[in-house]
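Retro notes, item 3 of 5
We never archived the inputs for the arginine complex last cycle. Fixing that now. Sequence and ligand:
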Amino acid sequence: MNYKIKLLEDKIKEALNTLGYMLDEVTINPSNRPELGDYQFNGVMPLAKKNNQNPVEVAHNLVAILKTYPELKDVSVAGPGFINLTFSDSFLIDFLNDSLKDLTINYKDETIKKTIFLDYGGPNVAKVLHVGHLRSANIGEALKRLCNAIGCKTISDVHLGDWGRPMGMVILEIKTRYPDLAYFKEDYHGEPVDFNLTNDDLLELYPIATSKAKADEKIMAEARDINYDLQHKHPGYYALWQKIVEISVNEVQRLYQDLNISFDLWEGESDSFAYMDEMLEFLYSKNIVTESEGAKVINIKEETDNKEMPPLILIKSNGAVSYEATDLAAIWERNHKFKLDEIWYMTDKRQELHFTQVFRAAHQSAIVSPNLKFVFNGFGTMNGPDGKPFKTRDGGVMPLSDLLDMVTGECEKRLMPNITTNREKIARIIAVGAIKYADLLPFRTTDYNFDIAKFTDLNGKTGTYLLYSTIRMKSLLTKAQQENISFDYLKDVSNPSVRKIIVAMLDLKRIIKRSFENCSLNEICEYLYKITNLYNNFYSEYKILTEENNLLKTSYLSLTKTIYDNNCYLLNILGINIPEKM
Ligand code: ARG
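Structure as it came back at the time:
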């Protein structure tokens, strides 16, 4: 929690000590009734109950000591023993000036120093990047930035779905259409082939290839054979597959760049596959793999389970390795390459059972040390405006790029008419901000409906509102600079609106920590809205640049600068860029 709050909590603990109560920890919280105080301490009631004492009496004894603290201007007892705390001016002034000098005091947490590997919900090669892929990349990107802000190291992997039977199907479809391609000749050995294949071709091919295979057992068998050969490095199939991966990756990179999302590693299931044999051999040596109906399985039930826990299928009855085995191989690979404290997975919450099985198998077989922690960060679905899975007008899945274009168009309509250059580029930045904020606002596991009007509303709880307000703060600061008015310290908190903003800022560190613990950005989104709203109310209520009292003017501007910097910092954690104007 906030260093200043923490210091005060420690002092309250000391006061309780002198009264004869030994406590490990004291927590104070923002007040439920701000008219009575800034924060409150609710710990007296349970303490008195434990000691068979009158809580109001204990509270009054404590208050007598707290009243002597310079951090507090006012302390009072309410109801059955609540203690209301009102901070002194100097307490708030010092905190704001510290934040103004170095914002990271609200973020860095020396007690959490970890290296965290992030596995995103991997787009599939040759397949359209659809709205379902947005959440994984968006949540993953923001969590990565949050980890870094706190002080953790991260390694992020896009984890492409680039391996498996669909690859055989796509290659088979290409082979059917262009049987004379050099890739399919007996004597092909990896030389370059003049074959023009685009991402659009792949997007057209993929659904046809998969539905043909599903409809016809013979085609499916052929695709399976091709996939088998591909996985055993058949020169032609392998070269064609590399080309397919390259085309897809280029397209995915282009889209992710637009979305301000990046990865340290562009690995895929195929990279982990190189470790499969090694990993399987290790598992067999542990005697935990058994046969069941022709499949090789690992029983991962635990005594404490009160739910059905099916065994993990490692090798399917047809001899193919399973999705679970692929993830175990990826864990094997990562554990050998990096020194990790945790591995986080950001995928649709419907994959929870899969990951529970994988994590258990990894720990029970000791593929990784028991100290390596696995975290499954499942998320809910973004549905269409009607609350049903998102579809295009003709009933297909909505490509992510179409969604982006749609929102960009809407944002461009709302741009100021006097912006004449780069309108599309600016609208794109705002659109990405609007989509991302709307996506991070609900708790991670909550489903939500896409609503373009709501998400881009300039007056709502939206990314657009936050961007607009933050740009306005900046322009105020620029004007002050032009008029040579300084804003490097705050000296006065007599204005109740100013006080309220600083008190709200005190809670930030706790929110950051909780967001990290919950692996969800919702509280940060709420906080950004709250603080921006408080600031905007102050902005409309008081004149700043024309304030005649210089001390007040400097203080107001210093506050503006802190909120502006902090908004930029928080928007950056959310992966949202701020345009120059809008
Ligand atoms: N590519 C998979 C899909 O689209 C998701 C991969 C999720 N990550 C993982 N490590 N299994 O369904």
